[in-house]
Design brief:
Layout: E1 4-9, H1 16-28, E2 31-36, H2 48-58, E3 65-69, H3 74-81, E4 85-89, H4 93-109, E5 114-118, H5 129-137, H6 148-157
Parallel strand pairs: 1-2, 1-4, 2-3, 4-5
Length: 159
């Protein structure tokens, strides 16, 4: 049985923290599906299509990383994709509290799925999409926190 992991998120924008987790997961699992969705609780800077295109560009050379858009429950989409694991990233204890509640719900919706939590590497652990957008908005040095294609998109968005 192949271990296929689904990493769902809004990725608005994709950061080096996300990239770190995705690439490390690709070293462990047969396939990583980066599922980019809409978070109805957040106003997105980039359209869903833009976020998918940026992620596809970042992972274009990776054979076992797939990027797709989705608009469904993560559990339903994971099962539809043949995934047996949902991957979630944790940076802080605050993240853990929210992710624990989400995992609780996911276990009730799809008990056949496992959830795996990964922390980013130390050098990218403090990066968040929200902070990156704030730094970019006010002209700070955001390029160190995101892949080059994302840095260009941020430059264009805040020009």
């Amino acid at each position: 049985m192949k271990n296929i992991v689904l990493y769902p998120g809004s990725f608005d924008p994709l950061t080096n923290g996300h990239k770190d987790i995705i690439e490390r997961a690709a070293d462990v699992f047969d396939e990583v599906i980066v599922a980019i969705g809409v978070n109805s609780n957040k106003a997105a800077l980039f359209s869903l299509e833009q976020r998918v295109e940026m992620a596809e560009s970042v992972f274009a050379k990776e054979d076992n990383i797939q990027v797709t858009a989705f608009d469904a429950l993560s559990t339903d989409f994971a099962l539809e994709c043949g995934a047996n694991i949902i991957l979630r990233g944790l940076r802080t204890g605050i993240d853990f509290a929210a992710e624990f509640q989400l995992d609780w719900m996911n276990q009730r919706l799809a008990p056949e799925l496992e959830t795996l939590f990964m922390t980013p590497s130390e050098e990218v652990a403090g990066i968040s999409s929200t902070l990156v957008k704030e730094v970019a908005k006010y002209g700070g040095d955001y390029e160190q926190f995101v892949p080059a294609v994302v840095a260009q998109a941020l430059e264009d968005a805040f020009a």
